[in-house]
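Continuing the batch. This is chain 6 of the set; chains 1 through 5 are on the previous pages. Same settings as before, nothing changed between runs. Recording input and output for traceability.
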Amino acid sequence: MTAPKMLVIQPDESDPIGPLGDWLTEAGAELDIRLLPDRTLPADLDGYTGVVCLGGGMSANDDDAHPWLADVRKLLSKAAGARIPTLAICLGGQLLAVALGGSVGTGDQGPEVGPGLVSKKDAAWTDPLFADLPLMQDVLQFHNDAITRLPAGAELLASSPRYAYQAFRFDRCAYGVQFHIETTPDVVLDWARQSPEMAELTRPDVLTPENLARVHADITETWRPFAHRFVRLVSGDLAPAADRQRTLPMA
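Output for chain 6:
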């Protein structure tokens, strides 16, 4: 059987696919990683059965400094329209939200930094990727911007007290998450060095190598099986979410 081929969009050198790439390939996926802007995006998604979009330090609407972001949003919109399974992470999730008609802005509760928990919402319990996750999931946060409005018709899958829109699904198989599951302790420590003003928002013992090693072990336990399920979704072995039932107005 041919390995499912995924396009991996990497908007920023500082956020590689990391362990997530290992989890996807060990489940049988073939990854085509495009680090922007050095490697151009494909004109279309012919030959790809899945899409992953990673995070980055820029804003989702920062087209003046990064004009290629418009092409990323266009490709994510094409993937969703064609029902190609998509997983978009942090900046990627924000780009997906904007591409589908939602909005992103500076978070009104300030930056969210460090290890955290998000909780499943009602729709997650019947979602093919989220149903088997625990009620509370370990994640890594590092963002200034946040999704401020979901695309029309999107299903909210996970939330947190500070920022409600932590994970969503659009249509049957386009997923966006505000948090990170692909990081390593070294990557997070590098972000903290690059953004000391954000790192200072956490307690001194949070962003230590020892604590981050424990956190990433918990992230692996939760999200490695999730990544395997995503490969099954991409390959067609796992059915996507059911179409939402739309009720007509009474005459």
